[in-house]
Amino acid sequence: MGFLLARCIIGAATLLCVLPPCQAKFTSKFYGKTCPNLGAIVRSVMAPAVAKEPRMGASIIRLFFHDCFVNGCDGSILLDDTPTFTGEKNAGANVNSVRGYEVIDAIKTQVETACKATVSCADIIALASRDAVNLVGGPTWNVQLGRKDSRTASQSAANANLPGPGSSAASLVSAFAAKGLSAREMTALSGAHTVGRARCVLFRGRIYSDPNINATFAAARQQTCPQAGGDGNLAPFDDQTPDAFDNAYYKNLMAQRGLLHSDQELFNGGPQDALVRKYSGNAGIFAGDFAKAMVKMGGLMPVAGTPTEVRLNCRKVN
Q: Where does the UniProt annotation locate this protein (predicted)?
C-alpha cells in the first residue's frame, strides 16, 4: 500500500482562504527568492527526527492540526507561557498529546541561519507536517506558503475548538464544518490516526464500556491500560502497521478496532460508513483525499486584525 500512497502527489497553484475575510493568497513558491532552500532545510531536520523516532511523524501532524484548528494556522501553539501570558500548550487537548516542539525549534534555527527573519513558524509547521506524512510512507503535496505568526494565543479557544477522544460523529462533523471542512474531509483527516500512539487516559473509557468494539482488541488494550493507573501508558492507533502511513486505520474501524471512541464513531452505522469502506479498499483514494484536505486545512487563517509577525524564536514574540 505504501508505494501507492507515496506516489499520490497533490498540487495546487493557489489556495483560497477557507474562512472570510481572505487575508492572503498563498503560493508554494512564496520563498522562491528569499529562502530558496527552505524545503531542503526542513526535510534535513525532519528525516533524521522521524528515523530516530517514527512516532515523531505523527506528533508533527498533530501539531499542525492543533495549530490550525485554534484561530487559524498561525504558529500560536508554539508560544510558551510567561508570567503574564497563558498560551495553548497547556490546554486540555494539548498538554499531554502534542509534542515535537523541539523539532520545530531545530528547523527554525537552521532556517534563521540561512534566511534570517524571513520564514514564519506557521509555514515551518506546514512544511514539517507534509514531510512527516511522506517520511512514514504517505503522500506528498505542494505546501502553500505565506502565513504569518500570531503574536497571541488562547488557551480557552484551544479548549473550545479541539475535538476530544470521546466526540460523537455528529460533533466531529460540526466541529470541522465550523472550520469550513466537509464531513468527507473530516473523515480523511482522521486517517492521520493510521500512525502514532495515544495515552491510556484517552481510550480507557472505550475499551471498558463501549459496545461497538472487538472483544479481543479490547482485552489486548486492557493489558496496556488497567482500569486504575497507567494513564500515560501508550498504545498504537493502528496495531497492525503503527508507524506506516497507510489505509489500515479504516480497515481497523470496519473490524471494530478503533482505539478512540471518536475513531470508531466514523464506522458506527452512520453516514461516514460508506466512505470508511471506500478508503479501506482503496489506499490511493484515501491518500488523495487526505492530501487535499491537508492543503485546505492549511488555509485556515486568523481573523482580520490579528497582530502577526515573522517570529525569530517560535516560542516567543519578537
A: Secreted
Identity of the amino acid at 218: A
Residues of the chain with CATH 1.10.420.10: 183-287
The CA distance from 161 to 170, in Å, is: 15
For 226-237, how does the pLDDT look when each residue is reduced to its tens digit (9 = 90+)? Answer: 999 999 999 999
Q: Which residues are annotated as a binding site?
A: 67, 70, 72, 74, 76, 88, 163, 193-194, 238, 241, 246
- Catalytic residue list contains 66: yes
CATH C-level class of 2-7+24-162+295-309: mainly alpha
Peptide bond into 21 cis (omega under 30): yes
* Binding-site residues from annotation for substrate: 163
Tens of pLDDT, residue by residue over 50-61, are: 999 999 999 999
* Radius of gyration for the alpha carbons in the chain, expressed in angstroms and rounded: 19
Second-level CATH architecture of 183-287: Orthogonal Bundle (1.10)
